């Protein structure tokens, strides 16, 4: 992780002073930190016998940061294609492999295991190969296993297995990109909104694209889109993240720990799972993202099947209705990402308002979804209702990440966000699976109500933040 708050420790500063022979008028750590943050300079610092290149995450001053941002955006396109692919392909997979929807839902479980691995080993991965290695590893996994899916595996078990490493890869990308964008010196809220809008745009395009590939008779070729996108992402990642080594990650964590806990004895276990999960902000963010991603992906994945089963069997027409959610989702992250700083005192209060509006529109969704009409007026109304569900739900994830980064100390950014995002990813896999099992038993027409329950739960969790997180009133 790069950070705008980078300073050498006291021992290194003494070394610099000794080398320069100026022990009377040397810069303080605060002044040196400010000089890095406010300049476009890249500075070399020796750390444990390795050269570490530090610079501010300011894309206006440091051109390299622009390419890092672009790389994150590209990989979020892949992320969006992946998350909506299963829901859009679900009817096709059941028909092609002659299996039940419950069996197809096992895809969500495999991705859950992948995300779980990401949550457990993201910190270790950074310690051994750095952010650079993490991004390259994740992108390579996407290239290989999306490539296998594009070849239309003969066995569904091969198809299903591919979702495990893809879950791992996207769990790594998710945590790295959120921490990186959340630590930008300028416009981090806007950039976070844009990055998550890119995800939404890919998810929005997936249903109609899949529908056309299915009509063409080559549904598996849809996966060439994430393959090509991953290749382009790799072309940016290798040069853009070349300085984000394991040594730099160790250095940034050490400095952040020293700056923020200078009077606290070192705790070697503070990045362990059980220690992290006891931190109130990490625990609440993990619970929130678990439910949030469950609600988001359940809506996106099962809405298309809900439409086909209860409204119309026209796959192409229903794919466009299903895209309403992702259109609203994308525009919400883009538009409200810019509106948050202008109309609210902080991200937490903005999301509290967005959360209640999301719950309101999901309530309307339950009511309208229960009505069975087959008219243009009805489908227009349903389109608008689902659009606003996505519009107000969209910014909740990026805002939650920013609030967490504001409260957490710097040395816990990667492990804390990685854990929360990965647990959230588990929710994005487990809860859609549960929706599939439940609707198989009671009927798919109950899908809107199940999604409403999840939205109500995440609204309650978000409202409880100030009660359990003390000493950060300026952010809450």
UniProtKB/TrEMBL annotation:
GO molecular function: transmembrane transporter activity
Positions in coiled-coil regions: none
Principal location class: membrane
Keywords, alphabetical: Membrane, Transmembrane, Transmembrane helix, Transport
Database matches in SUPFAM superfamilies: MFS general substrate transporter (SSF103473)
Intracellular or extracellular location(s): Endomembrane system
Protein name: Major facilitator superfamily (MFS) profile domain-containing protein
Species of the source: Naumovozyma castellii
Listed transmembrane segments: 64-82, 133-150, 156-181, 193-214, 220-241, 282-305, 317-339, 351-371, 377-400, 412-434, 446-465
Major facilitator superfamily (MFS) profile domain segment(s): 68-474
Domain of life (superkingdom): Eukaryota
Keyword RNA-binding: no
Membrane topology of this protein: Multi-pass membrane protein
Family stated for the protein in its record: Belongs to the major facilitator superfamily.
GO cellular component terms, A-Z: endomembrane system; membrane
InterPro entries according to UniProt: MFS (IPR011701), MFS_dom (IPR020846), MFS_trans_sf (IPR036259), MFS_Transporter (IPR051788)
């Amino acid at each position: 992780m790069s950070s705008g708050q980078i300073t050498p420790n006291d021992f290194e500063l003494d070394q610099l002073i000794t080398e320069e022979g100026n022990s009377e008028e040397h810069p303080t750590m605060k002044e040196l930190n400010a000089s890095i943050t406010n300049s476009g300079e890249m500075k070399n610092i020796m750390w444990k016998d390795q050269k570490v290149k530090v610079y501010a995450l300011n894309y206006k001053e440091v051109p390299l940061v622009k390419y890092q941002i672009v790389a994150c955006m590209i990989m979020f396109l892949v992320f969006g294609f992946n998350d909506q692919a299963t829901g859009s392909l679900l009817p096709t997979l059941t028909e092609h492999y002659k299996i039940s929807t419950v069996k197809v839902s096992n895809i969500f479980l495999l991705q859950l295991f992948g995300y779980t691995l990401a949550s457990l080993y993201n910190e270790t991965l950074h310690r051994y190969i750095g952010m650079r290695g993490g991004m390259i590893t994740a992108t390579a996994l996407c290239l290989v296993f999306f490539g296998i899916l594009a070849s239309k595996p003969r066995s569904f078990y091969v198809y299903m297995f591919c979702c495990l490493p893809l879950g791992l890869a996207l769990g790594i990308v998710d945590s790295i990109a959120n921490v990186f964008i959340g630590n930008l010196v300028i416009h981090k809220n806007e950039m976070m909104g844009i990055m998550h809008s890119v995800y939404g745009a890919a998810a929005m395009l997936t249903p109609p694209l899949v529908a056309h590939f299915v009509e063409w008779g080559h549904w598996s070729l849809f996966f060439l889109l994430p393959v090509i996108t991953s290749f382009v992402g790799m072309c940016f990642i290798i040069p853009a993240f070349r300085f984000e080594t394991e040594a730099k990650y160790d250095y940034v964590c050490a400095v952040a720990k020293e700056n923020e806990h200078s009077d606290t004895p070192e705790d070697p276990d503070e990045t362990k799972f059980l220690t992290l999960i006891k931190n109130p902000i990490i625990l609440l963010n993990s619970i929130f993202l678990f439910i949030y991603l469950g609600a988001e992906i359940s809506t996106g994945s099962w809405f298309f099947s809900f439409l086909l089963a209860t409204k119309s069997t026209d796959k192409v027409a229903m794919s466009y209705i299903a895209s309403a959610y992702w259109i609203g989702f994308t525009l919400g992250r883009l538009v409200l990402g810019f509106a948050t700083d202008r109309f609210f005192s902080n991200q937490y209060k903005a999301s509290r308002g967005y959360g209640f509006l999301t719950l309101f529109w999901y309530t309307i969704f339950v009511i309208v979804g229960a009505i069975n009409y087959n008219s243009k007026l009805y489908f227009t109304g349903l389109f608008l209702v689902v659009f606003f569900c996505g519009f107000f739900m969209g910014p909740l994830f990026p805002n939650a990440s920013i609030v967490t980064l504001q409260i957490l100390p710097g040395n816990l950014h990667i492990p804390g966000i990685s854990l929360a995002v990965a647990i959230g990813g588990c929710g994005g896999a487990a809860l859609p699976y549960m929706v599939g099992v439940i609707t198989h038993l009671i009927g798919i027409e109950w899908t809107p109500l199940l999604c409403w329950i999840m939205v109500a739960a995440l609204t309650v969790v978000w409202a409880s933040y100030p009660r359990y997180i003390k000493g950060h009133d300026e952010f809450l």
